[in-house]
Design a protein that fits this description.
mainly alpha; about 80 residues; flat; 3 helices
Amino acid sequence: MASQHTPAKDAACAHAAARTDIARLLDILQMELERSVKAESPDWTLVAELQKVRHDLIGVVGFVTGFDRATVEEFLADAE
């Protein structure tokens, strides 16, 4: 007999799987950032790639937090 899952259990499993995937993706991103620092001389292609990732991450943070893009960018500017 197949086990019956409650919707809450299914949601908890899906949530845990998503968290795990996100953590792994962030690890990959961190490794790529470290690799880019070690580049002999960064070129404009690498800069453009990092700016694209930054742009996309601002969108992701805005989506997850509910903040608009300007608020996230202001947060980043305050750290500088």
